[in-house]
Amino acid sequence: MITTEQARSVIAAGEARAKKIGIAVNIAVLDAGTHLKAFSRMDGAVLGSVDIALGKARTAALFEITSEAVWDYCKPGAQAPGLQLSNGGLMTFAGGIPLTAPDGSVIGAVGVSGGAVSQDREIAEAAAQALGA
Amino acid sequence: MITTEQARSVIAAGEARAKKIGIAVNIAVLDAGTHLKAFSRMDGAVLGSVDIALGKARTAALFEITSEAVWDYCKPGAQAPGLQLSNGGLMTFAGGIPLTAPDGSVIGAVGVSGGAVSQDREIAEAAAQALGA
Amino acid sequence: MITTEQARSVIAAGEARAKKIGIAVNIAVLDAGTHLKAFSRMDGAVLGSVDIALGKARTAALFEITSEAVWDYCKPGAQAPGLQLSNGGLMTFAGGIPLTAPDGSVIGAVGVSGGAVSQDREIAEAAAQALGA
Amino acid sequence: MITTEQARSVIAAGEARAKKIGIAVNIAVLDAGTHLKAFSRMDGAVLGSVDIALGKARTAALFEITSEAVWDYCKPGAQAPGLQLSNGGLMTFAGGIPLTAPDGSVIGAVGVSGGAVSQDREIAEAAAQALGA
After folding, report:
1. d(CA D14, CA D49)
2. Stated pTM of the model
3. Residue A60: its chain D contacts at CB < 8 A?
4. ipTM for this model
5. Cα–Cα distance for residue pair C47/B32, rounded to 1 Å
6. What is the pLDDT, as a whole number, of residue B41?
7. In chain B, which residues have their Cβ closer than 8 Å to the Cβ of D109?
């Protein structure tokens, strides 16, 4: 069960990295049941990226893998075409990462959107590391 | 345009009041266009109250009045029966309050859910006051 | 089939009445198939009234009666409890009126929202009269 | 904050271009928060294009770029596969353009649909220019 304190440290770590890069992003933290725990939109992030941050976190929590790893299952030629249409629509590019407890169990997920995809991934990774290696 | 710093001060003021009362709530902050700006679920708040906090804030932002004031328009015998079915469903009980700039213009709304309705209202009022009288 | 010119004259007549009253409203004009034909939000109308104007017009077009007349079928004690939940949610208070051709056939509907219910009704009636008695 | 007068001049400029080309289109104008401000369907435009015009405008407002520029992020081989499934579904082909104030800030968006895509783009550009170069 992810705590408020943990969710805030995840967001703080992500925002610190975003500021270092010099961009504005949304950071969403969900619990393992995909319910919203904490969210922050940095000043200047475009409105369309709010839903994408939420969607990346939801995708990562639903499948317990990164959002872009889900794409490997449904990309052209892969085994599960249309998988991205399940669950009301998945976000299948980088920026969503499961959050794990020290024992390795998934306790939630973080989703980042607002920058280039590689920037969103970097920020999400920095955010996820706030819970420990 | 509500800022991240303002949204955080709203949530912090609300959570301080909730802790004083001794309950766990969700606090949602939206901008004037009803887009999510910040959110926090305190440890122990029931899952069903996440959507209610968001809905109260959305209702207050859409109509620029408190969420319970919307009920006065659609309660039994009032002039607008079924108003609560508009906009994808409104939350028409206390806990949603418009947030205003010093010049009186609406810059967003806060929504609180998790306690008794009177507690949610008290917490939302404390949260809204973080932006000044 | 309602024309663009007719839809504009409906909106113009409604806005003229709204200005005379001194309020800001949304005016939606749909065709007989409930598809959007024209829409205008006057400066200052609250955001929540956009969907209500559309909903009143849709309700009037779907049943070929005023939006408040639908309420007579589903109000407490009436024969069709819950009717207002059909069609994705109806708006069952005044401000929606069918638009008719000179031969009496329904060619669409107008919906008004933004003022008090009695004001919305008055503006919708003025708007509908733009198509002739 | 886009005004009614501005929204009307956008629609008038777009319709003038559509008439010059000889086609019938829908033109939607949204505010910066993606809320409907004004809409017009020219006589003869197919019903399916109503939602497309609204969707193109919404896409442009959400990301503050043209609707077709969003496609560059999610087309086959690009970095954000499935981006078009976010925000309830985006319209990622030409005809949606952000509307800007003289200071460069985004105050809304226009969406055009009903003709060939290249025609929709030409009409949307003519419409957007109504607010100045």
Report:
1. 15
2. 0.97
3. none
4. 0.96
5. 9
6. 98
7. none
